[in-house]
Amino acid sequence: MSETSATNTATSTTTTPTTTVSSPARLADDTSQGKTTIAASVVQKIAGIAAREISGVHSMGGGVSRAFGAIRERIPGGGTGATNIAGVQVEVGEKQAAIDLDIVVEYGASIVELARAVRRNVITAVERMTGLEVIEVNIAVNDIHLPEALDEDAMPPVQSARVE
């Protein structure tokens, strides 16, 4: 038992409070019967799936990340792994997680209501499945997907105006 205590002490003094997706798994549950660790990539996948479940979310990621994702999917073995989930970045600590999402919204959807629904669904899914406390979900809307009838060539040019 003293070896276990010494190992746990050494581990806790050498870990950092947060990690990015590429880092190893973090402590989510530590009991006298053992501990459970959850990889940041798991949190990333849960958040991505939960965000896509909301009606009005067309896709995830900005234009560049979506383009690279499409290229990666065509390469054998390139479409797997945590870093290939476009539009989802996570930081996972021992008991908390922070999530950043880049989304493309369907034209006509209320962005404010959509962001609330996405945030609520992501927090619920991550907390329920992992036991981690989600301290924030930041959402960046990078684009609006237009229906086939409205393509960007048919739209009138946007007039510049003063904005307060």
Automatic annotation (TrEMBL):
PANTHER family: ALKALINE SHOCK PROTEIN 23, HYPOTHETICAL CYTOSOLIC PROTEIN-RELATED. Residues 1-33 are annotated as: Disordered. This is Alkaline shock family protein YloU. Residues 1-25 have a biased composition (Low complexity). Pfam families: Asp23. Belongs to the asp23 family.
